[in-house]
Amino acid sequence: MNPIPARLDHLVLATPELAVTVADFARRTGVMPAPGGAHVGFGTRNHLVSLGGSSYLEIIGPDPEQAGADGPRPFDVDQLVSARTVTWAISPPDLDAAVVEARARGYDPGPVRPMSRRRPDGTLLEWRLTDGDTAHPSGLVPFLIDWGASVHPTAAGLPVTPLLRLSATAPDPDEIRPLLAAVGAELAVTEGPVGLSFTVDSPRGPVTFG
């Protein structure tokens, strides 16, 4: 199995303290993540690093400039005690068709909803993604994303730490594999506590994040 999943759009490294995690990533890799932007109304903001090609790492955490959020913040960042790779996203050729196919195969990735944010240069990015309570709670099954006519985040000249591999552990890998197949994704899953980990190449050598 390819250590880098096909159609990988991005990995999500969630943190309760964005500035601390960005600084830690820079210290360990020698590469400083670029500011992404705020998710207005959701109470979060992010920093980004290219993983090579059209894939990237999103480091996301609470936005100190947003006093509150319209409900729980994405990826339960307020409940985390430390940074953790919580999930990942793939970009199918046809998002809506992929949702229909997944449901036909017994897995509901959730409803499709629009989102947006502005880059620091003012460029508005708009995308659609799957989200909802029907998504698998482990985060091991990727959500689906479609950037439509927007410029992809990797087109902004992000700093690069090439992805070497992505893997996962689960108490029952055989439960996860059919769900991955339902959304057209492949991921190496072995037995163990629920978790995602990835390794990037960097000026300081390979670095693994869990």
TrEMBL record:
Highest taxon listed in the record's lineage: Bacteria
Segments forming domain Glyoxalase-like: 8-183
Pfam families xref list: Glyoxalase_3 (PF13468)
Protein known as: VOC family protein
Lineage: Bacteria, Bacillati, Actinomycetota, Actinomycetes, Kitasatosporales
